DNA sequence: GGGGATTAATTCACTATTCAACTTTTAACA
DNA sequence: TGTTAAAAGTTGAATAGTGAATTAATCCCC
C-alpha cells in the first residue's frame, strides 16, 4: 500500500456495494456453516473433502491442499490432524519426496462426502445461486474474476 | 434445509460463479487484514472503530454493536475487552437500563480511526472497488442486496 | 406489587487459528 | 563433493472464537 492520503473517499454507491459484499460474505459463511452442522462438519472440513474428492486417487500433497484451500500450512496441518482423528482422512508418506505427505480421503471420508454433498449443494443454491438470474450470475462471475486474479497476485507477492 | 436429494447439481457456470465469490471473499479479507497490520489493527478492530465513529457520541450499546457487526454477544464481549486493553474503547454503564453497557470510543480510538481510515479506504479501493467499472459495481450491489436480505431473514429465524 | 419470562451482558470451558521455532529432506553450486 | 540455502511439514505457545451456563435487571400482567 502506498500511503496516499489523497485517495478519494468512497461514494455512496461504492460504500453500499462494499458493505453489501461484506455482509453477504459473512452471512453466507455463517449460514452454510449452520447447514453443515447437523452432519458434524464445518465449512473447512467440507472444503477439504471437496478438494480431495476431486483429486486423482483422492489424495493431495499437504502443500497443494494448503494452496488450493488458501490456508497456511500450519493451519492445514492442525486441520488434517482433527480430520484424521475424526476418521475422514489419513496421512500417507510420499515416496518421491521424503519430506512430503499426502492427505488421503478414507472410505469414511468419501462416504461422508457423497452423503453430505447434495445437502450442501441445496444450501448453496438456496442461499446464493438461486437468488440470482442467470444473467446476473454470469455478470457476477465476470466482474469478480479479475478481482480474484488481482488478489491472487497480491497474495503471491508477500 | 429440506433434505431434497433431487436438488440439481451446480452447472459449470454456477460452479465458477460460486467458487469465484468464495475466493474473492477470502482473499480480500486476507489482503485487508494485511494492509491493516502495520497499524496494529485487525479487520475486526477496524470494523468496531467504524461503527463507533459513525454512532452518536461515539458510543453504542453492546447489543447494537454486536448486531451491526454480525457477531455474537460473546465474541463482541471478548473483542471489546481486547480493545479496551489496547486503549481504543472503554465500557460505560447505561443509566436508562442498568443491565446495559455502552462501548465508547476513547480519544486514542478516535485518533487511530482518523489516522488509519485513509489507508484502509485506499486498500479497499485498490483491491476491490476500483477493479469494477461503475456499471459493474452498481450491478453487483443490485444483485447482492436481495441475497443479503435473504440471509438476514434466515439469521433472524434461528 | 410479586412471580415468571425476557433481555443484556459476561464468564467458562473448549475448539480453532496464528506465528515463530524446529526437523528433515532436497536443491544448488562452487 | 561438501556446504549452504530452500522447501515440506510439524509443533507449541499464545491469541481468538464458540456455545452453553450464569448473573442481574427489566418487563409483563394478573
UniProtKB/TrEMBL annotation, chains A, B:
InterPro entries per UniProt: HTH_MarR-typ, MarR/SlyA-like, WH-like_DNA-bd_sf, WH_DNA-bd_sf
A Pfam family matched in the record: MarR_2
Protein's UniProt name: MarR family transcriptional regulator
Protein's organism: Streptomyces bugieae
HTH marR-type domain segment(s): 14-149
Amino acid at each position: 500500500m502506498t500511503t496516499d492520503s489523497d485517495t478519494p473517499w468512497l461514494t455512496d454507491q461504492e460504500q453500499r456495494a462494499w458493505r453489501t459484499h461484506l455482509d453477504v460474505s459473512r452471512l453466507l459463511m455463517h449460514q452454510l456453516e449452520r447447514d453443515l452442522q447437523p452432519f458434524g462438519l464445518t465449512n473447512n472440513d467440507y472444503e477439504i473433502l471437496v478438494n480431495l474428492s476431486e483429486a486423482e486417487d483422492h489424495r493431495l500433497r499437504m502443500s497443494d491442499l494448503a494452496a488450493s484451500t488458501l490456508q497456511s500450512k500450519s493451519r492445514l496441518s492442525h486441520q488434517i490432524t482433527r480430520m484424521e482423528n475424526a476418521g475422514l482422512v489419513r496421512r500417507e508418506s510420499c515416496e518421491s519426496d521424503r519430506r512430503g505427505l499426502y492427505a488421503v480421503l478414507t472410505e469414511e471420508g468419501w462416504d461422508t462426502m457423497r452423503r453430505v454433498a447434495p445437502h450442501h449443494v441445496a444450501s448453496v443454491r438456496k442461499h446464493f445461486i438461486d437468488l440470482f438470474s442467470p444473467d446476473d450470475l454470469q455478470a457476477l462471475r465476470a466482474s469478480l474474476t479479475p478481482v480474484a486474479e488481482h488478489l491472487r497476485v497480491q497474495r503471491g507477492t508477500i
